[in-house]
## 1
Amino acid sequence: MNKLSKEKRSQLIAAVLGTAMVVTALYMTLIQFQREALRNVINKQEEKKANLDRTLDTIKNSKQIEADLLVVSNKLYLQEEDMASGDLYSSMYQQIGKFKQAYDIDIPQFTSSGVPAEMTLLPKFPYRQATMTVAGAGYYYDIGQFIADFENRFPTARILNLELTPAYAQNPDEKEKLQFRMDIVELVKPTARQ
C-alpha cells in the first residue's frame, strides 16, 4: 500500500469534508424544503379528503336529515299551538281556566298586562314572553299536582315566584288550605315567521 504524503492526506480529508458539507447543505436546503412542502401538500390533501367524506356523508344522509327536520318542525308547530297568541290575557285566562278544572283548587284572581315582553328566561331566544299572575287557594297536594302537571302539559310555560301562605278558612274542614300566588310565564306565539 502506498502511503500518502501528509499534504495529499490533508487534501483528501479536506475534499471528503468539503463534499460532506456540500451534500449536507444540499440536503438541508433543497431536499428538506421539498420534504416539508410535500408534507404540507399531503396534510392539505388529507383535510380536503376528510371534508369531501363529510360532504358525501351529508349528501348520502340528506333524506334522513330532511326527515329529522320535518319531525322537529312538526314538534315545534305543535308546541307553538299551545302558546299564547292574539289577545294574550284572554288566551292565557282560557288556557289556565280549562286546565284547572281537573284540580281541586280555586283561582279567582288573574292579573296580566297583556303585553308581550322580551325573553328573560333564556338569553337571545327568538320568542317573546307574557306573564300572568294568578292567586287562589287549595290544599298543598292539589297545588303541587297542578303545578307539576301544568309544566309537563305546557312545556312553553313556566311557573315562577310561587308564594304559599296559610288560608284564613272559615270552615274547620278547610283549616289546612293554603293561599297561593304565582307568576305563569309563557312564550308568545310569533305572528309571522321571518
## 2
Amino acid sequence: MDDNPTTTDFVFDHVAIAVERITDLWPTFAAALGGRYVDRGIGSDFEWTQLRFANGFVIEGLQPVGAENGAFLHRFLARNGPGPHHLTFKVPDLDAALARVREAGLTPVAENRDDPMWFEAFLHPSEAHGIVVQLAHPGDDLPPPPPEPEGFPDLPYDHPVASLGRVVHAVADLEAAAALYRDVLGGRVVSTGSAVDGNHWIELAWSGPGRLRLLEATNGDIAEWVGDRPGRLRHLYFNHDEPSWVPDVHQVAPARWVVDDDVFSTRLVIAPVC
C-alpha cells in the first residue's frame, strides 16, 4: 500500500525524550542499540543530544539546565517524569506550514524565529492527539556539530546498530489523528491493519526514514492505559541483531522482545533483523 504520494515536503525527523540527564539514554540507546552521535546543542534552559540509528531515524534527548522556575522541561519532568516529549517535522517553509495548520482549524503556539538557523512553532498535545508536535525550518548553512560528548560509548566496529523502525502512538480518535498526520502534516499511508484486541492502526511515512503508526485505543487494556487522554506514545519499535543485549529486555514471543515502560515511560519493542 505504499503507492499514495506524500502530500507535502515535510519530513518526520526525530522523536524527543525528556530525561534528567542526557547520559541516562546511553546504556540503552547507544551502548546496546548502537545509536550513533549526530549533534548536540544548548537552548535557553535545556540541552539536547541526538542519536541516529541504522536506517537514519533519530532520537533526541532533552535535559533541563538552569533554574527550575519557568523552565518548560523542569515542569514537564515534574509532571510526567522522563518520557516522550515531542515529534519533530522539518518543513521547507514555516509560513506555508503554519498556513496549512491554521486552515485545518488548529492553533500553532510558541512560534520562534530568533535563531536564523532554526525557525520553529509547535502544536499543543490537545490538538496533536496527546503529544507535542514541533514544526521546524532549519537554515541553509548549519554549522558542523560539536564533538561527541565526553564519555559517549565507544563501540567496537562490529557492534550491530539497530534500526528505529517506527514510533507507535496510541490515540483515542484514530480518524481525527489520521486527518492531522496524513492530511495536514503530509504523511502517506503505507499500511493499515487491526490488532488482536480489535483496535485498528494506520502507519504513515514521509520522505525520510521516520514512520508513525497511529494505534486506536478504544478496546482492551490499551484503552485503559490511555484513559481520558487524547493519546499517548505507546512504544518505539526497533530491529536489532542482538535483542538480548538491551538492558531489562524480556522475550514475549519467538521473535519479539520488550522493555517495559518504566524505562523513560516508553516501551521498547525489539524484533530481530529480517
## 3
Amino acid sequence: MTGEAKVTTEGIELKRNERKWTKPLWAAGWSGIPNIIIEKQQALGLSALDINIILYLSTFWWKQRDLPHPSVERIAEAVGVKPRTVQKRMAGLEKAGLMHRIERKLSKGGNSTNSYSFEGLIKEATPFALEKLKQREENEKREKDRLARKKPRLAVVGGKES
C-alpha cells in the first residue's frame, strides 16, 4: 500500500500484513480474494467446501489471463476431501454458472489439468459489492453531515472562554 506506515523490528522492515500474520507466514505466500465473496457466500449459493476450493484455486491465480490450473487431486489433498468430491463440487459450481472449466490439451496429444475461470462468480458477486460500496458511501456522508452539524466548542484560554 502506498504511504503505508512500516515498523522496524531488529532491522527488518515489516508491513502491516506481516505484522498481523508474522513475517514467515506472509513470506511463504498469500492470496487475494474479495471479502464480498466470503461475506456473501450463502447468498451466492456457496458451501464451505466451495469456498475452500475457491480459496485454494486463488493461490494459483496471479494474472487475469493466467488462470489457475492445479489438478483435482492436488485440490482434494489441500482441502481434505476425495478427488471425486472436488469433481462434484466443481461440476456444481459450473452448473450454477460461477465457474467455468477449460480443458487444456498437451501438444503431444492428451489432456493436461483444467484451467478454472471465475467470470461467473465475479459477475454474480459484483451487485453485492456495488451495494456494499453504496452503503459505505451513504454511511460516510451521514457521518460527515453529523460532524458538520456539531457546534464547535469554545476554546478556553487562561481560564476564560474565547
## 4
Amino acid sequence: MPKFTLAQLPYPYNALEPYLDAKTMEIHYTKHHQTYVDKLNAALNDFENLLQQSLETLLKNWSTLPEAVRLPVRNFGGGHLNHTLFWESLQKGGSKPSEKLEATLKKSFGSFSKFQEEFSAKAASLFGSGWAWLVQESNGSLMIIQTANQDNPIMTMSVRPLLGLDVWEHAYYLKYQSRRPEYIDAWWHVVNWEEVEKRML
C-alpha cells in the first residue's frame, strides 16, 4: 500500500464561497493534489527505505536522494506537503489572529495590516507559478518569502512554514482568471489563524 495518501478535506468544497469557489476547490483537490500524491508514490515504488521516511525528511534531504527520485520528490513531494498545509490553513468564515500572534506579527512587520500588505505584494509579484509563505526562523522571528513551482521552504532553509498561499493559476483561474491580486484579497477572508498559530515555535 502506498505510504503517502491524500487526507480528506476538513470542509466541503463549497465551504469557502464566495471567496474560493466550489468547482475550483474540487478540481484543485481531486485532480492536482491527488496527482502529486500518485506520482510521488509511483516514483518511490522501488525505494522502500524512502517510503518509510516522513515527507518532511524527504524534502529536507531531497538534494541528496538517489538521482532517479530527486526531482519527483522535489516536485510531487513538495506539491503534496504544500497543498496539505494550504487546505489546513483555510476555514469557512476565516478567523482573526490571537493577541499573541498579532503581537508577533507586529514585532516583525510593524502591524497586522502591514504584514498583510507585504504578504499580498509578495504573492502578487511572484513570476510564474509558486507560493508565498509566512515562515518562522529558529529565533522566533517571522519573514515572508517566495518559492517557485512546488518548492517548500524547508527544502533550502531552516525555517517553519506557518502559512502558504498557492498562486499557481489552477488555484484561482476559473473564478478570477488573470486577476491574481483579487484572488489574494479574497483568500484573506478564509484564513484559519488558529491553525497558523499551532505551527509556531
